[in-house]
Each structure stands twice: as structure tokens, then as C-alpha cells.
Design a protein that fits this description.
The protein is of the alpha/beta class. The chain has six helices and 15 strands. The chain has helices spanning 3-34, 66-77, 89-102, 129-138, 189-192, 215-233; strands at residues 43-44, 52-61, 108-118, 126-127, 146-151, 156-157, 166-172, 175-182, 240-241, 272-273, 280-281, 283-284, 290-291, 296-298, 303-305. The strands form six sheets. A five-stranded mixed β-sheet has the order 3-2-5-8-7, with helices on both faces. Helix 2 runs parallel beside helix 6 (215-233). The longest helix has 32 residues, at 3-34. The relative contact order is 0.16. The model is unreliable at 6-37 (pLDDT under 50).
């Protein structure tokens, strides 16, 4: 066989191999397009939800300034319909009303009730989770209400910074729900006050400006909002959640780290920017407040819903 004939056969063989590889590539791409992961779905398990007028009492444990307290109380007041210019905190809250409507329940209206201060830390500054339950009982919310326990930046709580930035739970006698959130500014701001502080791992991008000028309290608002969403829709573990009861995702926890459109790990998403302070936010509240609120899971679209 001459060289020219060999070259022709080699070229033909080469082309056949390339065509087969192209077909394999198209085949693989086609299979990828055919695969569609199942969307998450929030399932209602027929339990009680926090519906109707919801009295919320706050127990301030440790030292909080009046300015810091007003950041939280103004957030709770902003949940009422029609409060604040758009996009508003009350718009964010409206997504949670979808859960109530789907379950045949009344809309939830947060009413700010008692506020109690324990600035001398009567149980000490190193607390177990059982202590949080005791403190929640002192908040003295009305029956069917919600108690919010907030600890200052020098109080250490079991599991804080290691496994959580806060949690919600319930007491059986009487049946009541409560939320605990700690001020992480001196203990773990990279974990519990992101995106207002550089994260503890991943790309060390420039932190965002805190809308109320307080990294610790603005971080607490993020966690209060997320836990409030989970508590109202799943107060006793048999309400709405995604997945198994062993590791449920709730309305707030299903969307961790998402604040605006286009968000991805390490990037909070498209947000509004205050041209004067340079702070980032996505919701307006009462008294001219600005807040950065986390996305919540929308049961009607099975997507994380943002308001900006």
C-alpha cells in the first residue's frame, strides 16, 4: 500500500472517530437536558400554625442600648400591612400569608406586646438551651403568643456560632412558641452577621454596609426574620416544612444566604443601595428604617421569593 493510499485511509478513520465523539457529546448533552431535578415542595402536616393576632413579647438578656432595641421593635411594627414604602417589610411578610391561606387559616398579624430587660444577666453569661426556655417563660406573652429571647454580644449560648445563630422551639406547659437569637458581633460575625461582615470561609469579598449602622443588630434582624418565618409556619414541628421531619427545611431556612435576585454562595444578590450611607438593603420599614431581609420559600412557586 502506497503512502497516499495509507494517508487517505488514515484520514477517513480519523474523521469517523471524530464524528463518533461528536455524537457521544451530543448524546451526553441531550441526557443532561432531559434530567430535571424535582423541585422542593413545602408540605403541610396538619398541625397548628400561628394565625390571627400574634402577640410577640421580647426579653432582652444583657445590655442593649435604646437605639439597638428600636431596630428590632421597628422591624416587628413594620410587619403590619401597608407600613413603609415599597419594597416594604410588610411585602416580605405577605409571602408567609400564602402558607396560611393554603392551610385554610387566618392571616397572621404581629402585635408587639411586652418588653422585659434582664441587663444584669440573672442566669449568668454562659447559658444552656434549657436556660433559653426558662427566659422565654419570663417574657410573659399571652396564650398563643410568641416569646422572643435576645442575648447580648457578651453572652455565650450553647451551640451559638458552632451549629446555629439562633433557633425556635416550644414549651408544652403552657403550649407556646419562642425564638432565641444572639448578637454575634464579637463572637462570630462572619458566620451569623454575613453579609455585613466577611465570611469565615470562602471568597473574602468586601462586606456590605449595615442598613442601621450596627453589624450585630442588623445581623440579628436577618436571623430573627428567618426564624420568625419558620416559627409562624411550623411552630410545633407539624406545620409546613420541606423534606423529612428528621432534617426539615422551613420557610426561612430553605433560602439561607439569598437576599436578592441572582444570589449565589458568597453573593447576596441584587440589592438597593443607600446613596448617603452606602448601606445595602431590600426593604423599607416604619420610621424611615431600612432592612436587609432574607428570602423566604414561596409554597405557590416552590422558589425562594425575594422582594427587591
Amino acid at each position: 500500500m502506497g503512502f497516499s493510499e495509507f494517508a487517505k485511509k488514515f484520514t477517513l478513520l480519523f474523521l469517523l472517530v471524530q464524528l463518533s465523539l461528536v455524537n457521544m457529546c451530543f448524546g451526553a448533552r441531550k441526557l443532561n437536558y432531559l434530567y430535571k431535578p424535582q423541585p422542593m415542595s413545602a408540605t403541610y402536616h396538619d398541625g397548628a400554625l400561628l394565625e390571627g393576632d400574634l402577640p410577640v413579647s421580647i426579653l432582652w438578656y444583657g445590655k442593649f442600648s435604646p437605639a439597638q432595641k428600636s431596630i428590632v421593635s421597628d422591624f416587628l411594627l413594620s410587619l403590619s400591612p401597608g407600613k413603609g414604602q415599597k419594597p416594604s417589610v410588610s411585602q416580605w411578610w405577605n409571602t408567609l400569608q400564602i402558607y396560611m391561606k393554603k392551610a385554610g387559616k387566618r392571616e397572621t398579624r404581629v402585635v408587639l406586646a411586652n418588653q422585659i430587660s434582664d441587663k444584669n444577666c440573672s442566669l449568668g453569661k454562659i447559658l444552656k438551651k434549657s436556660h433559653i426556655s426558662m427566659l422565654a417563660g419570663r417574657a410573659n406573652s399571652k396564650l398563643g403568643g410568641l416569646n422572643l429571647v435576645l442575648t447580648s454580644n457578651d453572652v455565650v449560648v450553647e451551640g451559638f456560632c458552632m451549629s446555629s445563630c439562633g433557633f425556635h422551639a416550644s414549651d408544652t406547659m403552657p403550649i407556646s412558641a419562642f425564638i432565641w437569637v444572639g448578637n454575634s458581633v464579637t463572637q462570630c460575625p462572619g458566620q451569623c452577621a454575613w453579609p455585613f461582615h466577611q465570611p469565615i470561609y470562602g471568597p473574602q469579598t468586601e462586606p456590605l454596609g449595615a442598613p442601621n449602622g450596627d453589624v450585630g443588630l442588623d445581623g440579628m434582624i436577618v436571623n430573627i426574620a428567618s426564624l420568625l418565618a419558620g416559627t409562624v409556619t411550623n411552630p410545633f414541628g407539624n406545620g409546613y416544612y420541606i423534606g423529612s421531619d428528621a432534617a426539615p427545611l422551613e420557610a426561612g431556612s430553605a433560602c439561607t444566604g439569598v437576599y436578592g435576585k441572582g444570589a449565589y454562595p458568597g453573593y447576596a444578590g441584587e440589592l438597593l443601595l443607600d446613596s448617603v450611607t452606602g448601606a445595602s438593603y431590600n426593604a423599607h420599614g416604619v420610621s424611615g428604617r431600612q432592612y436587609l431581609l432574607p428570602a423566604v420559600f414561596d409554597p405557590s412557586t416552590s422558589q425562594c421569593a425575594t422582594i427587591a
